Each structure stands twice: as structure tokens, then as C-alpha cells.
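Pair request: fold both.
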Amino acid sequence: MPRRNSAPAGQSGLPPNDHPVWSLGVLNHVAIAVPDMEKSAAFYKNILRAQSVSEKVALPDHGVYTVFVHLGNTKIELLHPYGDKSPIAKFLEKNKEGGIHHVCIEVDDIEAALLDVTAKGVRSLDKKPKIGAHGKPVVFLHPKDCGGVLVELEQK
């Protein structure tokens, strides 16, 4: 049975009937920009005793190196600059010690989510999803439209 939504867009908390339906999923990871990847990975592995810390992987298309620290119910993604035009290099210029860069939340339909949130005035950093570190489509939402937080949506 089709959902009925007679309230004006944004007032019912639901998208209008002409927008695709999508669902927000689980927290996939919290990304932390780090000035020293080896030192940061060693901290999670040796000091905090994380069960699994991945090898460093270069993602030239994104301008980053990544290391994933696997936790029981989510992950921490360590980010370090790759190349001169890395967005992480710019972040580290402003935050010399590093810090939280973004949060990543899974969605069940990234195309519908992007269409819906942009229709509601949230800016996307990209016009369409691109392939992220997990080999799945991702899109980043502008922090000025997300309470000061860079939000990454990732296809489940």
C-alpha cells in the first residue's frame, strides 16, 4: 500500500510522496586524519590492543592512505595525505595533531538518499556517488549543512 503524506515537505518528517524512499543504516566508521600513520596505527594495535588493524592502503583517486581499525561493531578509518592535492593535507594544515575528519553512515539506496537530501537543501560535495575505500558508492555531504560535521553516506 502506498504511503500517504499530506503534510507539506519537511513538516511531517517524511519525504514527500514523489521522493524515493531510503533508510539510514548503521555507523560504518569514524574517520580520523593523522599526521603520522605508522604511529597512529601502532597506538590502536599496541596500546589499545585492537584485534585487527589493516595494512596501509593508498587511494590515489581520493588523495589518501587508509588504515582500518576493526572494532566489534564499527571501524575507525585512519587517514593520511597522499599527494599534494590531498584534502587530508589541507585538514592537517589547520589541525596539526589531526582529529576527527568525518563520520560514515550506511544507507540502503545511495541514489535515493542523495536525491532526497539535496532536495531538502543539503549540499553534496559531489554531483553523483563515487567509489569509496570499501569499493562501494559513497557521497559526502557538506559540513555546513550537517551541524558542522562532514558526513559520508555509503551504499550498504
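--- second member of the pair ---
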Amino acid sequence: MALRMWASSTANALKLSSSASKSHLLPAFSISRCFSSVLEGLKYANSHEWVKHDGSVATIGITDHAQDHLGEVVFVELPEEKSSVSKEKNFGAVESVKATSEILSPISGEVIEVNTKLTDSPGLINSSPYEDGWMIKVKPSNPAELETLMGSKEYTKFCEEEDAAH
């Protein structure tokens, strides 16, 4: 009995749930999606892209929160170098085992580099969304657009509210 109570309280603390009552053979478990990381020093769009601005270059990718909701990424479509991207406009797509999603640019500018590693290893977006899974590097045409994006605390709150609404 004590073991069952411990298991129940541990499951509640970890936000695990069992649908064992629906199936007598194998219980199904799900883990709450509350473990996404949000990094300090980045800017975030409400469409779940991040921007790291360093001098005259802005690196862009999708957030840990976004990749977590997408599931295993199996294909990435990215723009060509020297092409232009516009704020809140589509610049590519991410295909996962669950769905295909457009990627919106959080800022406007010229693409100066594309992460070609994603062609052969799209799963880098899942395993390292803020480091190896970056998508494009842009020379911003309007750096003031960066100020319209959220900081880490604002983005964390945004994600919590968005998840609570679903």
C-alpha cells in the first residue's frame, strides 16, 4: 500500500497520467510538456521562432517549445543564401512525423547563411534547437524589429498561457 501511495504521489508530482482503466493489457502514459527550455539573451516570436542577435548577424531557429510540440523532425525546407526574408512571412517548412509547419521569419533581412547540416540531419532541431539546430543567419534590414520580439520571461509566460488554453 505504501508503495502504491508513493508511486501515485510521484506520478502526480511528475504530471504522469495513466489510462489503465481504458486498457487492461498495457497502461498508456503521457508526460506533461512542461520541460521545454527558454534561453536568456534570445528574442522570441509568438510563432515560436527564436533570434540571437550578435553584431550585424541574427541567427534564427525554432524554439524548444515548438520542436517539442512538433515531435520528431524528419525534413526541413530552408531558403537559399542571398534571398530575402520578411518579418512574419514564411521562409521555410519543418516536417515532422505529426505535421508540416511553416516557419515564419521574426525579422526582415538578407539570408547570409543556411544551416546545411539540417538537410542530412533534420533531427538536430529536436536534439539541439538553440545550438546545432539553428536554421538561417540573416543580416537584418530593420534592426528595430528585434525590439518587437519577446524576451525569455515574456515568452515563457506566453507559452504557459498558450498551453493552458489548449
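Observation on the second member. Residues 1-35 have pLDDT under 50 and may be disordered.
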